């Protein structure tokens, strides 16, 4: 079985019950599902605020906790299977299934259904909401506040073009582990854009290079809009046959530039040459 610790809910002392007989652990537990109750929260490698961050969980996303202790929950994100530690105070018991999702890069949950109301949470694209009613141009979100109706869509309403979604993040600062419009990394940009389009997408670039779509020749020729280009530890999205969109630490933001320019710069540094190109299955059918 896959023993990648990033997606394996198992430690020496505890593991998910479905892993019984597959991994060694002192005890196996069924765990419990929670929803994220804040705008977003980091998923960390250890129960310590100073621990390295692997990713972020968004408002309303489900986190399956196998252990809750000393203010920390250890478990697995439902959306992509990532395992780690989340602050207990950032989680709540799920009240109802989400009905809508944030469809714009960023919005706000307000205390009242009016534009002058106090902000309760800043929420980012793909955050999940349970809408319980509407008053004028604002929708009521279960136990959380109000949001403008034009900033949400039913969860089954997917964007038609994930590249166009990714382009909405142009200029967003680069942030390692980030998945929001306030800070995002290269693979987070790919994941958020593809998820908004209703496409399954793992979290990290090496997972994406192994699992998304169909492999293509690892070269800068013959590319088309939506192709994913991979280097060691990095990924970008082709906007057309020549230009790459990527969150990167050179520009320290999401930027678009000629692939040839990016490839030359990355090759001169630690990234090396292009190692893979993947074409999402939706593009292969076009």
Biggest β-sheet description: 6 strands, antiparallel
Number of helices: 5
CATH-scheme architecture of the largest domain? Alpha-Beta Complex
| Number of E-type strands | 25
Shape descriptor: globular
Assembly category: single chain
Q: CATH H level of the largest domain: which superfamily? A: endopeptidase domain like (from Nostoc punctiforme)
SSE order in H/E notation? Answer: EEEEEEEEEEEEEEEEEHEEHHEEEEEHEH
What's the average pLDDT? Answer: 96
Gyration radius, rounded: 20 Å
Task: Report strand %.
Answer: 35-45%
Question: Quick one: CATH class of the largest domain?
Answer: Alpha Beta
| CATH T-level fold name of the largest domain | endopeptidase fold (from Nostoc punctiforme)
Structural classification: mainly beta
Order of strands in the sheet with most strands: 20-25-21-22-23-24
Secondary structure topology:
Layout: E1 14-16, E2 27-29, E3 32-36, E4 40-44, E5 53-58, E6 62-69, E7 72-77, E8 83-87, E9 91-92, E10 100-102, E11 106-110, E12 119-124, E13 128-129, E14 131-135, E15 138-141, E16 145-148, E17 152-154, H1 162-167, E18 179-180, E19 183-184, H2 186-196, H3 205-211, E20 214-216, E21 228-231, E22 234-238, E23 243-248, E24 253-258, H4 259-268, E25 276-279, H5 281-284
Parallel strand pairs: 1-2
Antiparallel strand pairs: 3-6, 3-9, 4-5, 6-7, 7-8, 10-13, 10-17, 11-12, 14-15, 15-16, 18-19, 20-25, 21-22, 21-25, 22-23, 23-24
